[in-house]
Amino acid sequence: MLFVGDDWAEDHHDVEIQNAAGERLAAARLPEGLAGVARLHELVAAHLPEPDSESEGEVLAQVWVGIETERGPWVQALVAAGYRVFAINPRQVARYRERHSNAGAKSDAADAHALADMVRTDGHQLRSIAGDTELASGIKVLSRAHQRLIRDRTRQVLRLRQSLLEYFPAALDAFDDLTRADTVELLAKAPDPDTAARLTRAQISAAMRRARRPGIDAKTATMAAALRRPGLTRSEPVTAAFAAATRSLAAVIAALNSEIATLQRQLSAEFERHPAAAIYRSQPGLGPIVAARVLAEFGDDPDRYASARSRKNYAATSPITRQSGKKTSVHARYVHNERLVDALGRQAQGALVGSVGARAYYDLQRARGLGHRAALRQLANRLVGILHGCLKTGALYDETTAWGHRSTEPTPPPAAADAA
């Protein structure tokens, strides 16, 4: 077997190759890109037996590579070559480095050596990169891009709200949602108090109609009254400057709205193509977008999660236990995939309405004295287990199967339930 440590940077990779005894066979700095990958293959091939056509895959699988990322063309090239690749958290590498030196010295070559040592000595305890399908990988890219745009829009909306508070607070009374298309259109057309007060009801109702809002007549009257209500004002130069900034922010939010809608349609279409889409959509609390996010973050490698417990551990819905001597404590997991935790939290919140069993389980946790967030996390943990079972068996969610057994279970005492 060969063990390769790959310390990557934006434009180069420091690599070290070791044998099973820990002897350094080769070390080099390789350029990023096709030439660098080709050179790495040459270094590896120089220390491997010449394989025949039938044993080539088995020989390449004996090459274990440790690298501090799981993304990018370089990593995919290593996986495609047949190597077993381990994406190692940089913090784990730092802790491993401290085992052998307390001086604090650090270099790229030393990190490559530490990574090669890690996969050689601890490879059996490390998680290799999941073998997700290309479709799932594409869904992951779309899901994360869609979520980033939504967060970018939220930042722009907060800036807009703060700006309006400083010179045009009546707009916040008139517009209850600064992300809506009619709000953005009217703010771009009338970004200052005087112009907004002169907006006619016909202009306001037309903007609402283009945004397809219900109850246009009543909302138009309320909005017009709020915009025309007298209030404190700023000087003309300051108001003009704020108005220019508001017009720009409205244009940015309008553009983000358009791109978010475009990505959402594409994400939904790609998600529906996945073979497991029906199973995900059958789960309570999972609409198309949240379901796509959960699929994207879990991946679809059938061998990645050996049990429901391992899936729950990755989801960070299951607690961790710390035991030392006579002291034992149970805590939530704070190191986690933030995107997955957010999606599962949204699922749990939605399941309170869509599933009688989920609501009863949540109420049981609250009756035991848990707060809202802790009870939701317990519910999310249960829902992850249900999803795991459905994916393993290929079955759609069934309310009776998922929750029927709990109607006969006794209510656990708080201490026992917290440790479960």
Task: Explain what you see.
The chain is an alpha/beta fold and 420 residues long. It folds into three domains: 128 residues, Nucleotidyltransferase, domain 5, CATH 3.30.420; 134 residues; 141 residues, no CATH class. The chain contains 20 helices and seven strands. It has a five-stranded mixed β-sheet with strand order 3-2-1-4-5. The protein has a two-stranded antiparallel ribbon with strand order 6-7. A hairpin with a 5-residue loop joins strand 2 and strand 3. Helix 14 crosses helix 16. The chain is globular, with a radius of gyration of 28 Å.
How many distinct beta strands?
Answer: 7
What characteristic shape results from the CA principal axes?
globular
Main pleated-sheet profile: 5 strands, mixed
Bin the strand percentage. Answer: 5-15%
The tally of domains stands at: 3
Biggest sheet strand order reads 3-2-1-4-5
Helix content: 55-70%
Number of helices: 20
Order of helices and strands: EEEHHEHEHHHHHHHHHHHHEEHHHHH
